[in-house]
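Q: I have 254 residues here and want to know how they pack in 3D. Can you give me a structure?
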Amino acid sequence: MLVYPSAIDLSSASLQFLAGRLTVHRRQIGTRWRRLTAGRQALLVLAHLRCGDTYARLAAGFAIGIATVCRYVHEGIGVLAALAPTLQQAMKTAAGKAFVILDGTLLPIDRVAADRPYYSGKHKRHGMNVQVLADPFGRILWASPALPGAVHDIKAARTHSIIEALASCGVTCWADKGYQGAGGTVRVPYRGRWKHLSHGQQAVNRAHAKIRALGERAMATLKNWRLLRKLRCSTTRITHTAQAILTLTLNTTT
């Protein structure tokens, strides 16, 4: 097998943050010896999350077994996911913002046509629905647990109690037409064909689109982690994976 050096487009802050958390975790569980140091394990986890490297490739690169890679990755993701903010914590941060932007994204997964619950008719592919809250500058505040791709955005928002949380905190939220009927503090554009809208409604929709466009930065931040571009793991692990990436995004500079 050929081996070559590679690079990860992350700052050293990401490595130091994760290595520090893994060191604390090892002390808590009383680990005596590992094949890799906490720093090397952190590098392995980041290579998997950021570059989407497979277990086999990581095993060759770090000179360890595939089963060991699997344990190290799952452990690192678990440590990070436990630090992800809850919706209530995110609302405290959102309360200090002028407004927030709510949008849903589909994380593609490796599934066959028979898996109907995971098929998104909107995106014409299988995936998991994740709701994202962003601030006025497009920075991620919170990401929801993953639901099957067939779940619509409005249903996902209600399932996670996002609408109620925003209303209770009095935070104005801008969202797309997928959240029609949400009520509360959620603002959506006028519905209907463009030519059938009045000039005033068209102006409102233009302004609305400009505000929501800022939320695309949050989506781009997530999709910069190549693992999320095509997930091949169990659907039960996708929530922890997304929350782990959220933790790194909030606590480090990429």
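Q: Anything worth noting?
A: The two ends are 31 Å apart (CA to CA). The chain has a mean pLDDT of 91.
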